[in-house]
Design brief:
By secondary structure, the chain is of the alpha+beta class. The protein has 2 domains: 177 residues, no CATH class; 234 residues, no CATH class. It contains 19 helices and 8 strands. Strands 6-3-5-4-7 form a 5-stranded antiparallel beta sheet, sandwiched between helices. Helix 1 packs across helix 3. The longest helix has 24 residues. Bound molecules: zinc ion (ZN).
């Protein structure tokens, strides 16, 4: 730690924090408390009660932070996590488009910071984006939300027209040691045969089938009791006209299962067990699936640090999270890279032909969505110079800056930028220090 320098013009770290932030904070933060927190004593994170009661104006930022972490209701923290994870992708896949996402200016444009009208979130404009729905924590969150709204629109229209939407889930047997690429290829073959099958088409006819949206998902069971490896699977939102009574739906399910099982065996996947291989859930489950955007990152984020998935199954973003929490988890890193190589270029959500047009939904690519402004009602707060941006990148502060912009406004962004000025030239900060600064600059002033 001897090599650490304080920012230019700031002779002592604790004085810096206190005086620099004084007009914003106003109360509750003495130089001495700042000093020991800046010293990186993470033990205080677990003792929020020691920081005074909420609502007194003296509730330390640590207390609020700790409570927020428990459930992740704070969109700012979720956004900070996304940028931390994006930094992880850069470490694991430095040459990928995602490794370069949100770092470089769009030629001819300035780097802009915008804030949504309700002041809950902020975002950048003028930066090149990767548009990867699979490996980019930032782009995928944005794309997922847009895709979710498309589905909500289509399902509402379907309901208004007297139809229904069922959730059909198809899985295949899998075990530890399966090769993910091979598994995906075999599943693709089984699915192709299944969807062309005459007996399947007969069932779909009886359901009054209109079209479907296929969602491809994958989890991994390395932490489950029976580690059975990669688990890619499909969810279909089936748009159809006839709901069917319970007996009718069981009949449909059994007939679909028989054909699915046959194509799984034919593709070399083995025979799926009835209760695991297929599920035909009604409109409630379909609506639930869409409401929570279960295929996307936001869903994973809102789960926070509770136990994830069934029996400890993990998603690829969990691997990234595990790797960022502990770089010795080389298995997580390797699994994330394997996932990326196998899923690159695959569609996450695919609509059957004509279905989008039927519900008047404009067809937009993931890239187009990733490049769009998040919110038309947003307000431009300000622009960053190239040097300021270099400082931000150097301290991995992209998420922090947005959180400050959303909650503290442009004045506080300026303070943050002033604080990290010189990072690009090698000025370093003690661990945890910048997050303390962010917390002070995002405190509600009213
Ligand atoms: Zn991206």
């Amino acid at each position: 730690m001897d090599s650490l320098r304080t920012p230019p013009g700031l002779d002592q770290t604790h004085h810096v924090s206190a005086s620099f932030l004084s007009d914003q904070v106003g109360t509750g933060i003495s130089a001495s408390t700042t000093e020991h927190r800046v010293a990186g004593d993470r033990g205080h994170r677990d003792a929020p009660a020691a920081r005074g009661a909420p609502g007194t104006g003296e509730a330390g930022p640590l207390g609020r932070y700790t409570r927020q972490r428990a459930t992740f209701p704070d969109t700012g923290l979720a956004q900070i996590s996304r940028y931390v994870l994006l930094g992880g992708v850069r470490q694991l896949l430095p040459d990928s488009r995602t490794g370069k996402c949100m770092r470089f200016r769009v030629p001819g444009q300035a780097i802009q910071v915008w804030r949504t009208q309700h002041k809950k979130s902020a975002f950048y404009a003028g930066l090149q984006v990767c548009g990867s729905v699979w490996v980019c924590p930032v782009c995928s969150a944005k794309i997922s939300e847009r895709r979710r709204l498309e589905l909500v629109q289509a399902m509402a229209a379907q309901k208004a027209a007297g139809g229904t939407v069922s959730l059909l889930t198809l899985t295949t047997p899998h075990q530890r040691g399966d090769d993910l690429a091979e598994l995906l290829e075999q599943q693709g073959k089984a699915l192709e045969g299944f969807l062309r099958d005459r007996a399947v088409k007969k069932v779909l006819d009886e359901m009054g089938y209109i079209g479907q949206v296929k969602a491809l998902e994958v989890t991994h069971g390395r932490n489950s009791n029976h580690n059975n490896g990669w688990h890619p699977h499909f969810h279909f939102l089936m748009f159809h006209q006839k709901v069917g009574d319970p007996a009718q739906r069981v009949d449909w399910t059994v007939r679909l299962y028989n054909r699915w099982a046959a194509y799984c065996v034919k593709a070399g996947l083995g025979m799926p067990i009835y209760i695991y291989g297929i599920k035909l859930d009604d409109g409630t489950q379909a609506a639930n699936y869409v409401a929570k955007g279960m295929w996307g990152l936001d869903h994973e984020m809102t789960k926070g640090h509770t136990k994830r998935g069934k029996e400890g199954s993990e998603t690829p973003f969990d691997f990234l999270r595990a790797y960022m929490a502990d770089h010795r988890d080389t298995q997580a890193a390797a699994l994330f890279v394997e996932f990326r190589n196998c899923f690159k270029g695959k569609q996450q959500l695919s609509w059957s032909r004509g279905l989008k047009a039927r519900f008047l939904i404009t067809d937009k690519s993931d890239d187009q969505i990733a490049e769009e402004h998040q919110n038309e009602l947003a307000v431009l707060l300000g622009m960053l110079t190239a040097d300021q941006w270099r400082d931000v990148l150097k301290v991995d502060g992209r998420g922090q800056l947005l959180d400050i912009a959303a909650k503290g406004g442009w004045d506080n962004v300026q303070k943050y930028l002033h604080f990290i000025d010189g990072a690009r030239d090698g000025v370093q900060f003690q661990p945890g220090m910048l997050d303390e600064v962010r917390q002070l600059l995002t405190r509600e002033t009213a």
